[in-house]
Amino acid sequence: MSTTELPASHAELMDGVYRRQRHIYDLTRKYYLLGRDRLISGLDVPQGGTVLELGCGTGRNIILAARRYPEARFFGLDISAEMLETAEAAIAREGLSGRVTLKRGDATNFDAGALFGVARFDRVFVSYSLSMIPGWEKTVSEALAALAPGGSLHVVDFGQQEGLPRWFRALLRGWLKKFHVTPRETLREVLESESRRTGASFHFRTLYRGYAWLGVIGAAK
């Protein structure tokens, strides 16, 4: 899907939300986007591997992952031009532009080969983006389709706060709604269903009493 074909309403919404927030996004989100670093440490990228992040935002995760796996190549996709501007500047400051390629696109419908010149990736990850993507289930399907044989999809996002007090859940949901974020109640079921459909392995963990959920789907070799 080309930039001109992006769903205008959602792209414009995300640009509007992050036009100013992108400058302080990483400073504020580190306190409540929990589990991101655990996801990165669990990527276990093979030597010379390729990694795609869907919903790469400010580039925070790609930068950390690129430092951790210095022999890998990284690719990032995001629907927001505003966020990509911030990400590209951050990646350039870190001297990673030669190993990280960013493109604007819709995570529910993209052609990795046309965008990046790479059709399949050893690792694909999605960090706190499914809760912001309309039709997020399609993102899971697209991510799995972009996996190389033996590759893996890693997802971390808000859980249902099942082990936390109700007042905390209500407070968190109210806060997230201001930023068009909706924790996906069926996230585990969708990941598990997609793993069965594709004959892949599936591992799932609840983090911080259900504050966050972490799922990994491993493609067959």
Automatic annotation (TrEMBL):
* Signal sequence coordinates: none
**Keyword Transferase in annotation:** yes
Q: Which UniProt keywords apply?
A: Methyltransferase, Transferase
Classify the source by domain of life.
Bacteria
Instruction: Indicate the segments forming the Methyltransferase domain, all copies.
Output: 51-151
Organism listed in the record: Mesorhizobium abyssinicae
Please report the name of this protein according to its UniProt entry: Class I SAM-dependent methyltransferase
Q: What is its EC number?
A: 2.1.1.-
A Gene Ontology annotation in the biological process aspect, one of them, is: methylation
Q: Tell me a Gene Ontology molecular-function term this record carries.
A: methyltransferase activity
